[in-house]
Amino acid sequence: MTDTAEFxxxxxxxxxxxxxxxxxPRPRRRPALSPSRAADFKQCPLLYRFRAVDRLPxxxxxxxxxxxxxxxxxxxxxxxxxxxxxxxxxxxxVEPVWAELSxxxxxxxxxxxxxxxxxxxxWLESAGALLDTYFTLEDPSRFEPAACEQLVETETESGLLxxxxxxxxxxxxxxxxxxxxxxxxxxxxxxxxxxxxFQMKFYALVLLMTRGEVPTQLRLMYLADGxxxxxxxxxxxxxRFERTLDAIWTAILRAGRSGDFRPxxxxxxxxxxxxxxxxxxxxTPPDYPGWPDxxxxxxxxxxxxxxx
Length: 308
Fold this sequence. Notes:
Blueprint: E1 32-33, H1 35-43, H2 45-53, H3 62-77, H4 87-104, H5 118-137, E2 147-155, E3 161-171, E4 177-183, H6 193-211, E5 217-222, E6 227-231, H7 235-258
Parallel strand pairs: 1-3, 4-5
Antiparallel strand pairs: 2-3, 3-4, 5-6
Helix pairs in contact: 1-2, 3-4, 3-5, 4-5, 6-7
């Protein structure tokens, strides 16, 4: 494993292009595939439809919102001077981040009965415990990330637009690139590692196509049990993965035009918010609204969908 110390200060990262201000109406953005939506379709085409086409609301669980809070705290931690990136400081950020989140997204206030709810205090403490575990995996005072919550976007040779957000990007003085993803769940069993790496290979492919080099390391940090999964991709593997994404998108387009998004029953159905609407469980989906226009499908999969 490349030691964290090798990824020292790097103030430059390939900038995302930005359009100059203009009075002209912004053109509609093309449909893009994100790792979250690609994983949804692989898991269950009907789930993809509910999320990307019907765009049905979902009430996040406490565990999911805790993941959002932890991600936000870690992002803010790296805005601080290196000497202040300490466990105690990370814990201090938990309550302000939650207060800001619950203010900007009022629907989250239903997660707890009141600000004095003892369960809220225990929940905030559990977020602090996850952050404590993060510090057992690395020392954030020893390096400067190139970017946090970085938007990455590119187009495959077939014309498929890929878009997503990377939790953290580290670039060593030697130019080596490391992609970091925080997970607030426990490390998967060996048989589930391929699924865990799907998202990371997605980011690695985008970085290969935008930077012209394969990331040296993909690293998943599991904060529930303090485990880390490290993977070193190579270019032939990522090019095969590109063809996999093209195939997924072709299947999505076929289903979108026909409206035939079939359910795929699995153990994950027990955690699906849309189970009452699923025909596999006796439910009836809403009327199919038709394949959405590019603007409606423009869903980059913003972080906050943390593992449970």
